[in-house]
Amino acid sequence: MQAIRFTLIAALAAFAASAVAAHAGPITLTFSHGTPTTHPEHVAALQFARRVEERTHGQIKFAIFPAGQLGSENEVLEKVRLGALDMAASTQNYLIKYEKAFAVITMPYVFDNYAHAHRVLDGPAMAWLAPLAKKQGFVMLSNWEWGFRNLTNNQRPINQPGDVRGLKIRVPPVLGLEATMQALGAQISKISFKDLYAALSQGRVDGQENPLNVIYYNKLYEVQKHLALTRHVYYNQVHLMGAKSWARLTPAQQTIVREESKAAGDGARKAIIAEEDELIAKMAAAGVKVTRPDPQPFRAMMEPAHQKIKLLAGEENARKFLNMVADERRP
């Protein structure tokens, strides 16, 4: 499988190189993302590709590779940075390895709701972070959706912070998420996402944390008894291009790509947010017990997590971000 993937990426890199030589004619850009084809993000990717092709009169086409076909998100982003792939939609945490300032977005319990998160990330945070990403070889086109993260487990309902203590929770290898669960007394397990379903069903871990759409579309609820709507960390997808691929486009084409990226991202946001109640109801109907704990006691325990994230991102970066959060808060 690894050899097949390497061969596919090598072929795409050769195709990209030949397209540069023939830049006056139509080009086909490669677009990788990690969601299944049933997910609203894939629907957004299809809309984006269709509209750009229409508006450029076929001068720009896309080859879309969903469901992580071209490798892990770390692998894909590095290929995008190097110009072997053109474009990706990836959660912002994967940019931390290139620019530590992105770690501030993983701070728990800083956003009041979706609108608050969107105001910050589309406005002052985008103006600040996009130039930093550009220096690392990425052009941030727009923010798409991923969602507030919630906690599931097989041991007990979560109604207060103490209910998390002692649970063995799988988290991605992201310091902000690890620190959040550790602040609540959980034991951290770093199982890969592709092995998560099996690990939950076999009892190797008690639970995991993810946005509702991830829990539902990847069927994790099938092997979990309890869902707590903790909404502890907000995650968004970043739609981005490699700077090398971006330079192949004319200014007019760049404008179209940016506009259609935002339109597709707005659509994904609406779809993901609108379906959350429906997904909760479907999981409850399947037998999952749902709790809605008061966030305030959880928020009160997050200072250790915030301090760890500040050390990673830098105190000045954290202060700048938290000021943005405060400035965009509404009564």
From TrEMBL:
InterPro entries: DctP_fam, TRAP_DctP, TRAP_DctP_sf. GO terms for cellular component: outer membrane-bounded periplasmic space. Residues 1-24 form the signal peptide. One of its GO terms (biological process) is transmembrane transport. It comes from the Bacteria. It holds the Pfam family DctP. Keywords: Signal, Transport. Belongs to the bacterial solute-binding protein 7 family. PANTHER family: C4-DICARBOXYLATE-BINDING PROTEIN DCTB (PTHR33376:SF7), PTHR33376. This is TRAP dicarboxylate transporter, DctP subunit. It comes from Polaromonas naphthalenivorans (strain CJ2).
